[in-house]
Amino acid sequence: MCELIPPRADLTEDQWLRTAGPGLADAAVADDTADTAASAPGVHRRTLLGGAMAGAALAALPFGAPQPAVAAARTVAPDRFPLPATPGPSGEYAVLITGDAGTGKAEQHAVTAAAREICRAEGVGLAVGLGDNIYENGPESDHDSEFEEKFERPNTGIDVPWLMVLGNHDCSGLVPGSGGDPSRGDREVAYAATSRRWYMPGRYYNVALPAGGAQEDPLVEFFALDTNPVASYVVQTDPHYRWNGPYMREQRRWLDTALRASRARWKVVLGHHPYLNNGKHGSAGSYDGFVIGHYTSGIHLKELYEEVVCGRADVIMSGHDHTLQILEPTDRTRGTRQLVCGAASKTGDGKAHFTHPAAWQDFARLGFMLLKVSAGAMTIDAYTVDATTKQARLAHRVRTARAVGVETGMTAGVQ
Ligand SMILES: [Fe+2]
Questions:
Q1: In whole angstroms, what is the distance from residue 330 CA to residue 334 CA?
Q2: Structural domain contains residue 63
């Protein structure tokens, strides 16, 4: 959803609920139609649970004990799909990019049906899920049936590892989409141990794919972030996850070290919340029109992107906005390109709200992207999907031969 905007910046969840009134929790999950309560047509079972949870928590504030940062590993799935070990025959890795997919609805199935065909044709060996993997407020447990309904079943046939990123809906508590309950993200980490597809060894992590042959340096490296503690709609009540708490300090240290140490030809940062964005949620530092506070505005995520990522990564890939955008690298970004790819199940409002330079953008259609990397070039293909025919159309292609940190320069063409 992400249509839910707090009445003021930096509220706690209970303050938000008290301010917005008792109907808020129901409204927040009303567009999730996956399992409707039989006794009350139109009212979702999880809506009722959400309302009950909100009521119980309001009666029993403050909240309970903090959850551990990372859930304990369970038995590893013995037959999980392996990470690709060598580039394809053309010397390329092809990677499917999706975001904001986890509704389980017909739109998600249409996009995955279209993507499945492209993946076969292009030899895709890896996929990315840019967060909001389980709408509306993340899994109830690490074996919640929602994993099957909103991930495994729609993605059947795209039999590759999926690098999964935590979105605000994956880490929500009383208010679906708030991003205020990190413990739900731990359930997604734990689920990775028993899934063939779902790859999430921690809340943030990196994955490097080898170049093959005698080349020792990786061809491409992915850095998956947890952006929620610095972009949540609400204050993180657990001190561990506060914007300046130990978790974010450690994540920043890890990212800085990992990016600095990486010898990969191409470096790709994956974070649910975008740095720059022409869609309605806007950019980090002024999300949804908020420019005050430590959380709702995303000001500290802006700092993280600008101080650690820009000029070091070739691409930042994000979702959150349900749109498709290939923004241009600029002096401001020090050559780093922002992609927004959050239209795997929902669409935007049809118009641009901001004017960051864009090679191509679409605010109305479903879709996904393909990243192709070889020793010589990085290519980004943007596909739109017709929900009725379940067909994908290549809408735009951008290609560069020069990695950030070496030189910048992109060529682009409208298909
Ligand atoms: Fe989101």
A1: 6
A2: no
